[in-house]
Amino acid sequence: MLGGLAIWREGEELRLPQSKKTRALLAYLALEARPIRRERLTAMLWEVPDDPRGALRWSLSKLRETVEATRIVSDRDTVAFDAADAAIDLAEIRGLDRTGFDAAPAAALAKAAEAFRGELLAGLDLPDCHDFQAWLVAMREEATALHRRLLQALVRREANQPEHAVPHARRLVGLDPQDAAARIELIRLLIAAGHGREAEEQYRLGSRLLDEAGAAGAQALRKAWIELRDARPAAAREAGLAVAASPAILLNRPAVAVLPFDNMSGDPEQEYFADGITDDLITALSQWRWFPVIARSSTFAFKQRGGDAVAFSRELGARYAVLGSVRRSGERLRVSTQLVDAVGGHQLWAERYDRRIGDVFALQDELTESIVTQVAPEVARVEGYRAERKAEADLTVWDLNLRALALINKGTPEGFTEAKGVLERSLALNAGASHTHALMALRNYHEALLVWARDPIDTSGEVLAAAQAAVSLDERNWLAHAMHGISVMWHRRDYDTAAAAERRALALNPSATLAHQFQGCVLIFAGAPREALVHLDAALRLNPQGSNMTMLLSDMALAYMLIGEHESAVGSAQRAIGNFPGDIRAQQRLIAALGHLGRRDEAQAALAELARWQRRLSRRYIELTYPFRDSADFEMFVAGLKRAGWRDD
Description:
Arc Repressor Mutant, subunit A, Rossmann fold, globular
């Protein structure tokens, strides 16, 4: 139950019924462990059908085919699951909790900890079945509480062996990144184990999260950090722990300060608009979670103080400052903004936006979106150059991750190979860094998709594993959810879970072009290409020069082809190939679209070009790497290839 629902008998995993409600019924019966009235089950899962009891009977028959028939015990009024001699992970952990985790044998605790593979009954949500969904939410809350108590017991048991306790403490923090007490304990253990650099990173991350949330634990964390830092042994000091008490100085990752935008209109009523832009930028930049963003309470002090904005940003501990102004003239509005290196004082990027005033809130959203999708990548780009110039001995997790991201964006086999080594070094420094796991998932995904991996399907499992690790370490990491969604679709073809994960990524960071692109990709293969184009167009609008432009245009080509707009498909595929001639996915889609248009000579030339990059395009390859939910979409794609002259020899 702890993760996706799975059943094993004598070491062999059983095939589950395809019906989601039937699987939900099994989970409910197994966890309730008592006879349930049929009326309760039909009301919970089949509120609408004409024959709900018939639907229940059908589901029970499917369950009897899955598990031993005798385990489904039913009479005229009730249904129950006979759990005799069956091991149910959550039920076993409930039993340990009743006797007390602290009193349980070490082996039992270790086994229980390993059972938590992910969210309880992941992918089994039924939003339209309100009673079941309410039950599922309650069960998930219970499972999380059990997991927390279990990890706390493991940390207590291993308190005198910090190296053994640290992994449990990391997972405990991952359950609730805003739990100050858990983070303080993790920092204490890291210092005791000699991992001073990771202890500092955990302090900085926790301090930022608690400050942003306005949580009461921020002050307790800061006080504990100073005490632990001052009490650390000399070896830990030499390992690189910060020596200054100022929270701003402790942020050795590059912080960004968004200073209040100037109202240049001469109209005091426009002050709210300038402040609104500033507030929205602080929020939107924070959603990227790649670098600390100075809180509003600190930056808005500049409005009363005035003076040199760049110098003020340095005082706050920011390496970068976002400055701007708002000017209104009649029905026209001009917003100017710039990104400044607060250390050197020079301008890195500037832009001016001229708009006609209409819906003020919509205009504010549009401007915020336009600015933040320029600022965040620019900070990453500049920091990437800085990391490349650093000596190897001075590289931090942040530096290594930036190096890896630059290598991934190259899109070459050599780049992917080198990025893997860099990310492995980063994980050796801090295995609990969610962003590093998310970047590993991104790296594996690109390698698998571009067929430079020896086994793309096996690699898709590696993508999923890295993404799940990233989500478990930081539930608010948008990139982790985006990678989880795309990998669930590729590896398990679970379109509903994939789409939900991408929606979560976009909720966490609406400006994330990659999340829009992945949502589009999921919708294409789920059978909704028109809806997919909405997200793909959004990604293109947000970042028309993005590093993923080639794959984005390739996805657009496939979506256009599936809705019968083959000319548009050809245009998008050709633009993708123009960006990167080695994009075999774009080449495949160009060939299919040309085939549907009957442009055989061009299609033959495209087939010859594809042969230079991909030795053989087989039907098996298409089945494995084009995970269409609807077989008609698959056959349409193959038909285009055949009309172009492709043969599966």
